Amino acid sequence: MPEKHTVAFLGLGHMGAPMAVNLVRAGHQVTGFDVVPAALEAARQRGVPTAGSAADAAAGADIVLTMFQTGQQVLDAYRGGNGQPGLLQAAAAGTMFLDCSTINVDEAREAAALAVQAGHRSVDAPVSGGVVGAEAGTLTFMVGGEAEDFQAVLPLLEAMGKRVVHCGAHGAGQAAKVCNNLILGVSMIAVSEAFVLGEQLGLSHQALFDVASAASGQCWALTTNCPVPGPVPGSPANRDYQPGFAGALMAKDLNLAVNALRSTNVAGRMGPLAAEIYGRFAAEGGAGRDFSAIITDIRNKSEQQALAAAGEASGRERAEGRRATTAHDDGSPE
Amino acid sequence: MPEKHTVAFLGLGHMGAPMAVNLVRAGHQVTGFDVVPAALEAARQRGVPTAGSAADAAAGADIVLTMFQTGQQVLDAYRGGNGQPGLLQAAAAGTMFLDCSTINVDEAREAAALAVQAGHRSVDAPVSGGVVGAEAGTLTFMVGGEAEDFQAVLPLLEAMGKRVVHCGAHGAGQAAKVCNNLILGVSMIAVSEAFVLGEQLGLSHQALFDVASAASGQCWALTTNCPVPGPVPGSPANRDYQPGFAGALMAKDLNLAVNALRSTNVAGRMGPLAAEIYGRFAAEGGAGRDFSAIITDIRNKSEQQALAAAGEASGRERAEGRRATTAHDDGSPE
């Protein structure tokens, strides 16, 4: 493969557009496409040449890069249908299919198998680092595929990220991401429960941070993305939980984790609980907030729980009062 | 207070004995006691002078240090009863009551209030670092109490540990420990679920470690106490899960976390789930293993789940086979 690639960049959303811009800057010959006209136009205005369809973009490319929301979208685009030619058919034989979407491991393997069967090469390379990392070119890529295919896409990925890890065979990139984010989602809830508990026990945020950050409670969710303002000035909690890593994306990734646990019969319990908690959080207004805002959810639910407990206690007192009165009435000589 | 203290050291178990030895080595005048004769004798043989009762040890001390299993034991010892004089009564006025046990925050506050009411001073200073840290004098102390009392016990604690943190008022040491260990217990389960999931997805331990340790899944449970052998050579997984930090102690600490969540009406869900998981783990043979052996528990339960799923699938096939046969029999012309 040549040093500079001809890249069809498909999916120019909040992540895809800045990634495509970085490829253009690095001297690659990029042709972008997005089914959303506004996204296509925005990318064009940022200097990304565009095509009239995904198939047109793929036709002249040696790399077809997809950055989609779901595995179904990836599979549909590869296969085509509804009168649209599939990318696998539109691309020249031996094209590299590089999927940077975050999707189910099973879907990633299916996509890779389809590409290989059609005479192409395939790599899954989901990213972490969010929109900020995409803009700055500091993403981490977790890559699954053949060693030589990894080497082939490495310069391209390094133009968009600062860390590229080969995790294993097809699907291993998705596997690494889903496992990492399972740990992350669970730890953020644990850290948040600990801070809310600390608040109720009269322990200052800084004191808990000082103890745990230098002890066995240390974790990225605490020491980099700290869910309370103060201890880590750069964390989203200091800017009213503007993401960062949005609650909707954490809910999506934990849903992928639950799918993976189910399909492999792994008896995980923390992952599914975290998926439930983030799913509800995203549905109840947290979708666009940083995932560390889960602490506000725990705080709110704790207040409700305290009120309910107080209500029960006062209800019990009233009931006992009534019983006492009744007993007195019953026993009164009148 | 003098630089060198006269210390009644009460509770000479696996943690207490080496802590007392370190105080003796640092030149403090220690008198130890334990209700278990064998523990008392073992400490004596390691060079800790001993007394005939806790009250005798406390009588001449300027610091009464307790290292017990439960808050009830601390409260009972302070108060006395059953013909035994309480420590609060046995000690000279103004004695420092330094409780290093890990107990409920409520109990720690009650113990402190009793000590202060009796004319004494009080500090709670639970530790982390385990038996290894106690032997090596590298414990972390999390301290709750008045600032001047913290300063007074600091040299003593520094003789037994390498990190001493003032966390706030009475009970704040216990609060910090329970919050830290809530994070720790939950993250270890999450890390273990991720490794077992990775195994089933064909992701090597080292690949997952390489990704997560340098990404947002990074946590002490992964990068210091890694639950699979290999990536972190010093972790208990490399010596068949010899503790380290025993499963029974993690179960105890998570139980304290649940008590604290309940008594403060904090709507935490990860903490209680972790308490349930570690409680069962400790009861089913994990009490004496390092808490990271929870991964073997998840692996076993996953195998059972896979077998059950396979059994259901084959049962369904058999049932469908029977229905097909029955249908044919019913429809046969004979």
List the helices and strands and how they pair.
The structure is a homodimer of 334-residue chains.
Chain A lengths: L5 E5 L5 H10 L3 E5 L3 H9 L8 H6 L3 E4 L4 H9 E2 L2 E2 L1 H4 L5 E4 L5 H13 L3 E4 L2 E2 L1 H7 L2 E6 L2 H12 L2 E8 L3 H29 L4 H9 L6 H4 L23 H17 L6 H17 L7 H38 L3
Parallel strand pairs in A: 1-2, 1-3, 3-6, 6-7, 9-10
Antiparallel strand pairs in A: 4-5, 8-9
Helix pairs in contact in A: 1-7, 4-6, 9-12, 9-13, 9-14, 12-13
Task: Give the structure's gist in a few sentences.
2 copies of one chain form a homodimer. With 334 residues, chain A is α/β, with parallel strands linked by helices. The first copy, chain A, has 14 helices and 10 strands.
Q: Explain this structure to me?
A:
- The structure is a homodimer of 334-residue chains.
- With 334 residues, chain A is of the alpha/beta class.
- Chain A is 55% helix and 13% strand.
- Chain A has 14 helices and 10 strands.
- A 5-stranded parallel β-sheet of chain A has the order 2-1-3-6-7, with helices on both faces. In chain A, strands 8-9-10 form a 3-stranded mixed β-sheet.
- Chain A starts with 5 loop residues before the first strand and ends with a helix.
- Residues 325-334 of chain A have low confidence and may be disordered.
- Chains A and B meet through β10, α9, α10, α11 and α12 of A and β10, α9, α10, α11 and α12 of B.
